[in-house]
Amino acid sequence: MLNLFHARHLLSRRGLHTLPARSLSTPDVYECNVRISALVRAGKAVAARQLFDEMPERDVVSWNTMIAAYWRASDCVESKRLFGLMPRRNVVSWNSMISGCIENGDIEEAFRYFQEMPERSIASWNAMISGLVKFDRVDEAERLFKVMPRRNVISYTALIDGLARNGDMRRARCLFDSLPMKNAVTWAVMISGYVENEMFDEARSLFSQMPEKNVVAITAIITGYCKEGKIENARKLFEGIKEKDPVSWNAMISGYANNEHGAEALRLYMQMLRSSMQPDHSTLLVVLTACSVLASLQCGKQIHATAVKMGLESDISLCNSFMTMYSKCGSISDSDLMFRNIQNPRLVSWNTIIAAFAQHGLYEKACAMLHDLVANGDRPDGITFLSILSACGHAGMVNESIFWFNVMVLEYQIPPRTEHFSCLVDIVSRAGQLEKACEVISAMPFQADGAVWSALLGACQVYLNVELAELAANKLVELNSQNSGAYVMLSNTYAASGKWRDVTKVRSLMKEQGVRKQPGYSWLEMGDKVHMFLRGDTSHPDIKRIHSQLDTVYLHMKTRHTINF
DNA sequence: CGAGAGCCAT
């Protein structure tokens, strides 16, 4: 059992030989406080409260611990009620009100406590600064930083983080370089700031100078490699981590899932479970991405079951991921069902279900959802309209796509981004209106990107417009000389127009430039088997029946009949 | 008992 002697012993082992006698509890109270604190850390707020209520006398630490328990449980009302009932408060009591409010999304309320408190510690200022940074109010954070009476390494680190989030890496670095007492957290903030701003070389250069590399910094670098598509480098770093934690596992799994390596992502997830690492909320999110990439309904359902077991089935971000997974795995009805079970859909959930209907070509349903979203009092954003546009595309509705584009820009005053333009160009040019597609491109307020030219080039191939195909292919190669799709589509356009000499020219140019085209492949899951199809590959045992079925489908598509299998 | 970092849904 812990008593005062033990407490002193523990503290002295941590190098704190002199104890502030005033803050030390009597042995009984101290012991209860320790037990309450343990219960709170284990998430057992009810048991903690019972112990708290049974205590014959309580000190300020007992109250603070109990209040923290309610903040952890997001029970703002009870936290504030207890705070009001406290007989005495210390600076820690006030500080936990500040961080509690911030944790629960109410920065204004946090600021009220900050202003009201009789005396502030460095931690009070730091809590306020990091809170403002969390809410993207970096300018205000900086103002507080400037007027605070004393600063420590945490204050600096919080502001460096803020500047980095604002994209101001130059000033972040200045502050970092001027700081003599950097610690591992400071280094990690700076490195992940570079990664966040896609300055990967700077991130790695700083990382190489970091004296003691910890798992947080390594994970940031892994994320950087994954964003660049250098998945092998990421894997090497990951394997080298001695003490892998859930976050580093999640980063690596997500790297595979987001680089089209769904199977490897799932393998890694299984390995994580085998090494008895507990998956968390984020693990499930990234594994669901892998299921979507693989279109594996089986795996997706298993993850769904795991989420239910973990008590996370109504977690909003997981629900959104389930919706995407079910939709991408072909089950729009499950996706729809998930959406209906969300009590309070926020914009992301609306956007997700609209995207799902769009993927399935259900234009009317997508629009009905947009209508419901507005009727619900929400405001659509650029992503909502991107999904609506994509619904138009899947349904081949050119005029509607232009209509919705205008609604977005004129009625909702949402500035169109390059994705909106590439979607529009894709729709218009697929319909054969190549000139109109060019008009859209020239009306863009910024440089067209690869997706725009790709869309145009794809249509040129279909509608045999050699001249425009050459233009688009040139633009694509300008943007990325290793773009094999550009060469292939241009070559196909020449071939379809009988310009064989030009075909040969493009092919030899590809060889010269060392551009290679990975063969296309697709697969689908039936029962417990995965059927894979490589381009030009006829090794599937049922290939004859598959081809004849495909011929039927093509015929129906051409005659615009509905298909009944 | 309180303040700073990495992974995370459209």
TrEMBL record:
Source taxon at top rank: Eukaryota
PPR repeats: 28-62, 90-124, 152-182, 183-217, 245-279, 346-380
PROSITE patterns per record: PPR
Family matches, as Gene3D superfamilies: Tetratricopeptide repeat domain (1.25.40.10)
InterPro entries reported for this sequence: E_motif (IPR046848), PPR_At4g14850-like_plant (IPR046960), PPR_rpt (IPR002885), TPR-like_helical_dom_sf (IPR011990)
GO molecular function: RNA binding
Key words of the record: Repeat
GO biological process: RNA modification; system development
PANTHER family: PENTATRICOPEPTIDE REPEAT-CONTAINING PROTEIN, PENTATRICOPEPTIDE REPEAT-CONTAINING PROTEIN ELI1, CHLOROPLASTIC-LIKE ISOFORM X2
Family as reported in the entry's similarity comment: Belongs to the PPR family. PCMP-H subfamily.
UniProt protein name: Chlororespiratory reduction 4
Origin species: Colocasia esculenta (Wild taro)
